[in-house]
Amino acid sequence: MIHGVEVKKIVKNKDERGWLAEIFRDDELACDLRPVMAYVSVTKPGVIRGPHEHKEQTDVFVFLGPGTFELHLWDNRKDSPTFGDQMKQSFGQDNSAAVKVPPGVVHGYKNIGDKQAWCINLPNRLFKGRGKKQEVDE
Q1: Peptide bond into 66 cis (omega under 30)
Q2: DSSP-assigned states of every residue in 82-99
Q3: In this predicted model, what pLDDT tens digit does every residue of 67-124 receive, in sequence order?
Q4: What are the two backbone dihedrals, phi and then psi, of residue 103, each rounded to the nearest 5 degrees?
Q5: CA gap 49, 52 in Å, rounded
Q6: How many other CB atoms are there within 10 angstroms of residue 18's CB atom?
Q7: Contacts of residue 52, Cβ cutoff 8 Å, sequence gap at least 6
Q8: What are phi and psi of 131, to 5 degrees?
Q9: Cβ(68)–Cβ(111) under 8 Å?
Q10: Would you call 32 exposed, middle or buried from its count of C-beta atoms within 10 A (0-12, 13-18, 19+)?
Q11: Residues 36 and 126: beta-carbon distance below 8 Å
Q12: DSSP E strand stretches across the chain
C-alpha cells in the first residue's frame, strides 16, 4: 500500500429490487477531505484516464460497476515513506470500493472490461476553483 491511500470495501445491499450502497459518510472522512463536488464518468472499454497528479486535491474514487477498472497509483511525494512505490488493483462490479488518493499520488485507471465502466469522484477541491477561475490542480 501507498502511505495515505485508503481502500474501503463497499457493500452492496441487495434485495429483489436491485441493490443500494453507501458511497460517502460524513463521519468517515476528516473535515478537510470532505467532498465539495461530485462527478461521474463513463469510460469505454480499453480507454485509460490519467495519469494525473494533484498538488492540493484529494480524490475519493468510487468504483461500483458496471464494468471493471485497473487503478494504477504511484507515490511521487519526496517526503513520503512510500516515495516511488507503486500500486495496481482492480475495482468495479465484482470488487466495489472507494479509494482515497491524497495529493502527490499519481493516479490513472483503465477500463479492462468489455463494457462501459462508471467511476464516481468526490474530490475535496472544486475543479478550477470557485467560479472555475483558477488553474487546474494537475
Answers
A1: yes
A2: TTT-EEEEEEETTB-EEE
A3: 999 999 999 999 999 999 999 999 999 999 999 999 999 999 999 999 999 999 999 9
A4: -55, 145
A5: 8
A6: 8
A7: 106, 107, 108, 138
A8: 70, 15
A9: yes
A10: exposed
A11: yes
A12: 6-9, 13-15, 18-20, 39-43, 48-52, 59-63, 68-75, 86-92, 97-101, 105-111, 117-121
In angstroms, the CA 137 to CA 53 distance is 8
DSSP classification of residue 109 = E
C-alpha cell at 67: 464494468
93: region left, alpha or beta (phi > 0 left; psi from -120 to 50 alpha): alpha
Query: Is the model's pTM score more than 0.85?
Result: yes
- Sign of the alpha-carbon dihedral angle for 60, 64, 69, 71: positive
